[in-house]
Design a protein that fits this description.
Oligomer: single chain
Structural class: mainly beta
Number of strands: 5
Strand content: 35-45%
Helix content: under 10%
Distance between the termini: 40 Å
Strand order of the largest sheet: 3-4-5
Length: 65
Amino acid sequence: MRNSVSFGDGIYKSTDGGKNWTHLGLKETEHIARVLVSPLDSNTAWVCAVGHQAATQRGAWCLPD
């Protein structure tokens, strides 16, 4: 079995069941390990951005920022 790694360009949000998506940022992270949505406010999420070694957008982020 071959190992593979893919990467993206940030984090997106949909408010209509996935018909449309809005880019929220973190384009340079490439790899996002976890997203936690606030149980008190669905417009707030914490993102664990692993990124690549030279990425400037690594660490824990709170969206919206």
